[in-house]
Amino acid sequence: MGTDEAFDAEEFYAEMDRRARERRERARRRRPSWPSVGSRRGAGRRRAAIAEARHLAATRAGRILIGACAAIAAVTAVGLVWLWPSAEARRGPSQAFGGATVPGRVIALRDVQCAGPIPQRCRQIVVEVRGRRWPITLGPVSASPVLDAGEAIRVAPIRLPPGAGPAGAERYAFVDVDRNGGLLAMGVALAVLALITLWWRGALAILGVGLSILLLTTFLVPALLQGRPAVLTALVAALAVMFITLVLTNGVGAQTMAATLGVTATLVLLAALAAACVAAADLDGRSNELSLLLSQQNRDVSLRGIVLAGMVIGALGVLADTAVTQASAVMALRRTDPRLSARGLYRRAFVIGRDHLSATIHTLVLAYAGATLPLLLVMRSSGVNAADALNAQDIAEPVVATIVGCAALIAAVPLTTGLAALLIARVPAELIGDGHGHHH
User: Fold this and answer.
1) N or C: which end of the chain has fewer CB within 10 A?
2) Paired residues of 153 in beta bridges
């Protein structure tokens, strides 16, 4: 890094530190109660956003920025309406994976003689379901799941016609350990931690995550199962999630709009790159038993399309973070030195993005590596060499996803920085509000 570039980055970080100290000092002097802070800051943010939008609309560059984001929002809304799955697709089949399960609790465990001609011992448990106790045979002891007395489990009713089956036939089948309670407790703990640490920003983050998951489960998944175009559906879902995330975490302002342009351009590039890489690697999506089961249950589903959709959605989080960071850097530099041209803004903000990029790429690579770790361990213990492991579709899919995601991240920095610099440089510095984005 040259001397000028190092000075640019240091100047930016110094400005960020100064603004953070000023905000902490103002908060220390006021010290109001938590509810009044949330309501007062919320009203202040709304007034500031309205004023900033009004000021931006008074300039040509501001109108271009607002118009471009409005067009993206309109296209996203039209896409949601056009691709929205039917009510039947949203409900899904009632007997998926054997039907609905009911909660139970293990009362006792014992070993019994297995039925059949081969003499061997089987593990049997006594389960309390809806106030009554029932026996369930799990299978041979060596292949049975490890359970303890008092453990919560999920069981499925065995529905037999009247008179069918031998006398004393078991009425329930073991499905799995009941993890719902633990997952709920972890989710609540995370929400409480976010609220304590981030206050009202934590509440907005929780709301954003909830809405994003709701959109993915009620739109993306049913639409893919109904045979909607996978890449187009994933792009529309990603854009909708982007708007939810950016608006809730950063409000409506120049920073959010600049980040919106950067994320949208990068997502389109990501989808095209993912399609090319999936075709080059000849990935058809038939990588495991679940994909094969899905293709048998629903012939309208494109397994290759699901792979592409997963790559688009999987890279969205880091793309949004990178875009917000770059838009925030451009705005902060514009406020710090209003004399900077678009080229100067781009050059200085790009230095900041470049410093941040290596850590973000590392994060994405480790995320995909962690997801495939059990499979890597199985293949390693089986003596599979590196060339054969990489050739396996179970490994090749996350490798391609990592390559595509990293390439999109690299492209997101110059794309977002360039778009933001071109537009923000033409907006008077005094009309740019004090951003509340994510700084690094």
Assistant:
1) N
2) 104, 177
